[in-house]
Amino acid sequence: MIDVNINRNDRTDLYEQVAAEIRRAIADGEAAPGERLPPAKDLADVLGVNPNTVLRALRLLRGEGLLEFRRGRGVSVIAAPEHGAVVQRARELVEVARRYGYSSQEIIDIILSVG
């Protein structure tokens, strides 16, 4: 099982602490791409938190592109944190560009022009 610790005295939300610890475990190689994570219930039991807290953290990491949920196979690591950071920035770019009325193709063109 990956080593995940939380600090109940920290003002950071518990789900964010859990997500940060899993992110760190992936970055440190404790959980490599292709590896399955323990079930959320097991992680919750070890941490002494509600399973919904762990599930919220896992969904956050899935949104960052680090984890994949597969029915019947659990949660697997699919990328390193660097990839997740790029995905997050891309989402932010798309959000801002759409707010200003840019189409998907225009966003792609902008990315290609600066790359």
Automatic annotation (TrEMBL):
InterPro entries: Tscrpt_reg_HTH_GntR (IPR000524), WH-like_DNA-bd_sf (IPR036388), WH_DNA-bd_sf (IPR036390)
Sequence ranges assigned to domain HTH gntR-type in this UniProt record: 12-80
Keyword Transcription: yes
Keyword terms of this UniProt record: DNA-binding, Transcription, Transcription regulation
Pfam families xref list: GntR (PF00392)
Protein name: GntR family transcriptional regulator
